[in-house]
Amino acid sequence: MIQGTGSNVGKSSLVAGLARAYTRRGLRVLPFKPQNMSNNAAVTVDGGEIGRAQALQAFACRALPETDMNPVLLKPTAETGAQVILQGQIWQQMSARDYQHVKRDLLGPVMESYNRLAAKCDLVLVEGAGAASEVNLRAHDIANMGFARAADLPVILAGDIDRGGVIANLVGTKIVMASDDAAQVSGFIINKMRGDTSLFTAGMETISHHTGWDALGIVPFYPDLRRLPAEDSLTLEAVSHRAGVADIIVLILPHIANFDDLDPLLDEPDLDIRLVRVDKNAPVAPHVPRSRLIILPGSKSVIQDLTILKQAGWDEIIRHHVAAGEHVWGLCGGYQMLGRTISDPEAVESPIAEASGIGLLDVDTVIRREKSLIAVQGDILDGKGRKSGIFEGYEIHCGTTSPTGPHKKLIAAASSASSAQTEDGRVFGTYVHGLFDTHDARKSLLARIGRGATQPDRSVVMNDILNGFADHLEAHLNLDDLLHRAR
Known about the structure:
Distance between the termini: 11 Å
Largest sheet: 6 strands, mixed
Strand order of the largest sheet: 15-13-16-18-24-23
Function: Catalyzes amidations at positions B, D, E, and G on adenosylcobyrinic A,C-diamide. NH(2) groups are provided by glutamine, and one molecule of ATP is hydrogenolyzed for each amidation.
Protein name: Cobyric acid synthase
Pathway: Cofactor biosynthesis; adenosylcobalamin biosynthesis
Organism: Candidatus Kirkpatrickella diaphorinae
InterPro entries: Class_I_gatase-like, CobQ/CobB/MinD/ParA_Nub-bd_dom, CobQ_GATase1, CobQ_synth, GATase_3, P-loop_NTPase
Number of strands: 24
C-alpha cells in the first residue's frame, strides 16, 4: 500500500507507474483505493463509477476499470456535503460529520471489494488517501492505516521533497502514529526530487534514524506526469501560449467536475488556452480577453455554479460572445447551463429548486437521483448533420435533458438528449465526456474555430507517459525489493 505524508505527494502516479512496471514484467496487477474524494470520476465496465485516478491505474495495468477498484467514492457538492458512491452506485448524500459516524459500517464492503480483486491477480497496488498522519480521522479509518491493518498490508510511505519539509513530514508522521500503525510501515520513498539525488543522502539517513523505517529510494521529478489526468481541480493552472486573441477560454467553476475532458486540448502545443476561475466575489473585468471559443465544463453542483457564473457577469459575456459570431461549448453540467431552465426538485445537488439557464440551446434539464452511467461511441455531426469525426466516451450525470423545440444533435449513436447544437453549429452542448480524446474528433471540433489538432489519440499519449515513468521507476527504485516486501 502506498500512503503519503499529505495530499498531492504523488501517490496516484506512483501506483500507476509501479502498475505499468510490474505489468510489463508479466504479473497480473490491479489497483485499489478503498476511499477516494474527487469529482473526477470514470464509468466502469460493470456499470458503476470510480475515481478517475483508479481508471488511469487500471489502464496502466492494461485492465478494464471495475467498481471494486474504488469501493467508496466521495463526490463533494455545494451546500449538501458529499454524495457517497458505494461500490459504484449512489448510496447516500451526507455531511462530513455524518460520514464519520457511518464510516465504520463501510469497512465490510471495502474488504469484500479488495478480496475479490486479490483473488484474481498476482499483485494489488493500494493507494491511500490524504495524509497518513491524520490521526484525528484514525477512528474507524478505511482510507489509510485502518485499511492497511485490516488487510495486513505492508505500507510504503511517500514524501514530496518538492514542496519542502519532507524530513519533518516523515519523522512527524512516525511521531503522531500509534505504535501498531507505525509497525505496519515497511519503508519510505522520497518523491519529486529535483537536481542531484546524492545531495539528499544525509536526509535519507536522518529520516531512517528517527523513524526506524527503511529508506527505499529517491524518485526524481518527472515532468510528463502533469499531462496525466488529475483528481484535484487545484492542479488546473492558468495557461497562455501567446499574446493576442485567445483560441479558447475555459471557465473553471467552483464545483468543476470531470475536468480531465480538457487534458487533450491542453496537450495541443499550438492552442492558446486561458483558464479563468469564476468567483462571485471577483466580477469579470470590463475587458475580457477575446477568444474564438468559451468552454463551460462539467459541474457537481450545476445550479450553484450557474448562480455564481451569473453573479460574476459571465452569462452576459457569453451571450455577447455568441452574438459576435464566436463559439460556446458546454460539457455535461455546462451543457445544462446553456439551456433554458434547470430544476432540482429533489434537492439532489442544491437547495435551489429551479434556475433559468443562459438560454442559448432550446433544452430544459431536470436533475434526478437516478444517475446515467454509460459508455458511448459514435460520430460527431456538423451543423448540417454530416458525420465529421469518430469519438469514444462516457456519460455520468444525474440530469435528464429534453428539447423544447426542433434541435440538431451534435453526436450520433447516443441518446437523443445526449447533445444539442444550434443551426450554425457555433453553440453546442453534450453529456459525453472524453469527446476530445480521439484525434479525429478533436480535429473535427477544433476545425470549427479554425484550429488544428496535432496530438494522437489520448490513449497513445497516456501509454507513452506511463511507459516512460515505469522506466524512470525501474532506474531509481529497487522494484525487486518492493515486490519482495509485498505479502
